[in-house]
Amino acid sequence: MAYYIYLLRCGDGSLYSGITTDPARRREEHRSGTGAKYTRAHKAVYIERIWACADRSNASKLEYALKRLNKAQKENLALGRPLSETGIAFDGIACGGKDYPDRLRAALTYCKKDPLITIDITEAIGLGLARVIAAEEKGVLVYLPAPSKAYYLCTDDVDTAERLCDLITEEKEMIVTHRAHVQSVIKARFVTESFEPCYNVAYLKKVPPISPVAEIVVRPMDQVDLPTALSVYTLYQAEEEMIELIQRKKLLGAYAGEKLVGFVGFHAEGAMGMLEVLPEYRKKGYGTALVCAQIDSVLQEKHVPFGQIFASNLPSLEMQKKLGFSFSEPTVVWNHIVR
User: Fold this and answer.
1) Which CATH number do you get for residue 67?
2) How open is the CA angle 337-175-244, to the nearest 5 degrees?
3) Domain membership flag for residue 46
4) Which neighbouring-strand residues pair with 199?
5) pLDDT tens digits for 290-311?
6) Which of 11, 128, 156, 195 holds its CA 20 to 30 A away from the CA of 238?
């Protein structure tokens, strides 16, 4: 079961941090006056930020760390700044190690050199999903614990890639490489099944695009529509992931009346994805409408909408261009570990 730590804005402008397994339900409890003594007195309004944790122990550590922050630090988090800027290390969360804040800062500094190729790394850090294993002038290695169990590696040269590869020691399901020379090093070191190269795409504007269609309604997908979604989504086995997204109201469905015509969600690392339109409803602009709604939802949470698009997926790439996304080079590769 996933646990969520949240920052909730109160009517007097203060911020309250809490822990829950169901953010939507907990928000309504606070707003109705049944959530906590503090929010009854200060009138809960809305949730500013949410971080996901794999278990209660790590969630409790993060909650404790947030409660120790001062008002200015909490306000920076509410504006979408990464946990690293407060000195909090997220492992699930691992707050230990005096050098960890410096390592986080070094990772973000490295990623600023090519922000599009590393947007998946910086957003995973900002969302509180990634732990920085190593960061130096010419490379960075981060780890996303369960449920992802994924390493992300980006370096400027082969020697740095080889050295950071020595630190890939924890349980892993996937290694994501950034740049072709890193991919070559990983393929020489590990037995993997690799997807084709992807573009990292990011929506860097502050205002969401306007949906091209008005005859559908986009809203959180209903649990009853899960079998339909699973029947058309074939990239990988996503049932467990979709169930969690539905519980968090993060799997958006497009509805014509009460009929599901398409959906879009998020992958475990925070990337936009899972976009599917049912075959009989394609070429009507519904996919674009779903992405527009998803961009809007991410911007409201003060994050950067981003995703990864296969280099051969020309229709999706064309749609992203029309919507105003910025593109990296197609050198991000997902490598699944072969057991």
Assistant:
1) 3.40.1440.10
2) 85
3) yes
4) 309
5) 999 999 999 987 789 999 999 9
6) 128
